[in-house]
Design a protein that fits this description.
Blueprint: H1 14-31, H2 36-43, H3 55-69
Length: 75
């Protein structure tokens, strides 16, 4: 008798995916200083539209701009 493998995938909402990715970036930055590849990826990231109701966007934009302006040694 052959048993069929059934995989159930739950769709992840775009907002939840974005939140998970942001948490992954924060975890990486808390675990070690950013090296040159991390700074390059952050510096190449898109900025977010700022809104006073979402201070995370302003913080993200500052992180992107700071990553563009510094090298790994300074970080």
């Amino acid at each position: 008798m052959n048993a069929a493998v059934v995989k159930i995938q739950h769709p992840v909402a775009a907002e939840d995916q974005a939140r998970a990715e942001l948490y992954a970036v924060l975890a990486r930055l808390y675990s070690a200083p950013p090296d040159a590849p991390v700074l390059a990826l952050l510096g190449a990231s898109a900025t977010w539209p700022e809104d006073p109701a979402t201070p995370v966007a302003a913080a993200w934009n500052r992180l992107v701009l700071a990553s563009q302006a510094m090298d790994a040694y300074a970080a």
